[in-house]
């Protein structure tokens, strides 16, 4: 369980077409990467799949396995097993880390918190009673967010720029968690413009101006990062020039 299929997905915001007729099957239990320049529609795609309020009025359809997500809001999609790790993790003043992790967990116990924190390289004794607020670094908050996602046992994890604004140690643990999700047959969708993140994926998709202009294995996708762009009708510079 966990296949995500887009069927002619089109989204307009303020009368501007942001996603254009996308038909993609994100491979079940695999690490899928969506790459492209800023403004290509990558984050919009993740927010549309997640069901954020401003992204519900799309044309076409999104399927989780055989279940249509059309008309389903974020809480309903979360119950179906879709979750998202944000580029900027939320801060929840007054909520201890242990309670934050257990909030969405299947098994709400100290053992669940301990296992989740261990997965992301954080000490249970040191962090369980700390608060998820500005006293934590960006890397710590992102690792705690991933710990909470792991405890949920999701079917699909959307990750928007997972290496953004974090230190080298945190990036290493984030990559380990991505592989951990794959080992549990969880479908992962990475939104990125980083070649390093792309290399962690099994398969990649290139968006440009809301259009799917290419897809393939990681080696093929990396070729585009090195300057071999795909011909398309975008009026701006090729996306790889922006990525460099």
Structure description:
It is a single chain. The protein is an alpha/beta fold and 244 residues long. Helices cover 34% and strands 28% of the residues. The longest helix has 16 residues. Helix 6 runs parallel beside helix 7. It contains ten helices and twelve strands. Strand 4 and strand 5 form a beta hairpin. The strands form three sheets. Strands 6-9-10-3-11-12 form a six-stranded mixed beta sheet, with helices on both faces. Strands 2-1-4-5 form a four-stranded antiparallel beta sheet, covered by helices on one side.
Draw up the topology in text.
Blueprint lengths: L3 E10 L2 E11 L4 E5 L6 H9 L8 E6 L2 E2 L5 H7 L1 E4 L6 E5 H6 L7 H10 L4 H4 L3 E2 L5 H15 L3 E5 L7 H16 L3 E6 L2 H4 L4 E6 L2 E7 H8 L13 H5 L1
Parallel strand pairs: 3-10, 3-11, 6-9, 9-10
Antiparallel strand pairs: 1-2, 1-4, 4-5, 7-8, 11-12
Spatial separation of the terminal alpha carbons: 37 Å
Query: Based on the structure, what is the oligomeric state of the protein chains?
Result: single chain
Strand content: 25-35%
Radius of gyration from the alpha-carbon trace, in angstroms: 18 Å
Number of strands: 12
Topology as a string of helices (H) and strands (E): EEEHEEHEEHHHEHEHEHEEHH
Net shape? globular
Spatial order of the strands forming the largest sheet = 6-9-10-3-11-12
Give the helix level as a range of percent: 25-40%
Mind summarizing the main beta sheet?
6 strands, mixed
Structural class: alpha/beta
**Uncertain regions: pLDDT < 50 for 5+ in a row?**
236-244
Mean pLDDT: 88
Secondary structure tally, helices: 10
């Amino acid at each position: 369980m966990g296949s995500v299929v887009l069927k002619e997905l089109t989204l307009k915001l303020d009368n501007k077409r942001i996603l254009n007729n996308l038909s993609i099957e994100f491979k079940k239990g695999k690490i899928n990467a969506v790459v492209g320049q800023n403004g290509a529609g990558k984050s919009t795609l993740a927010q549309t799949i997640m069901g954020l309020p401003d992204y519900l009025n799309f044309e076409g359809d999104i399927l989780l396995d055989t279940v249509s997500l059309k008309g389903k809001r974020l809480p309903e999609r979360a119950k179906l097993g879709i979750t998202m790790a944000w580029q900027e993790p939320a801060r929840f003043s007054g909520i201890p880390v242990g309670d934050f992790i257990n909030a969405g967990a299947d098994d709400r116990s100290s053992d669940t918190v301990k296992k989740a924190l261990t997965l992301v390289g954080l000490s249970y004794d040191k962090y369980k009673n700390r608060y998820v607020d500005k006293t934590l670094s960006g890397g710590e908050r992102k690792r705690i967010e991933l710990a909470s996602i792991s405890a949920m046992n999701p079917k699909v994890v959307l990750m928007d720029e997972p290496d953004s604004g974090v230190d080298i140690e945190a990036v290493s643990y984030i990559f380990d968690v991505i592989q951990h999700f794959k080992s549990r047959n969880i479908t992962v969708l990475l939104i990125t413009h980083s070649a390093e993140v792309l290399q962690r994926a099994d398969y990649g998709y290139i968006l440009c101006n809301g259009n799917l202009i290419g897809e393939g294995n990681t080696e093929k996708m990396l070729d585009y990062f090195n300057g071999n762009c795909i011909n398309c009708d975008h009026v701006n510079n090729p996306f790889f020039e922006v990525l460099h």
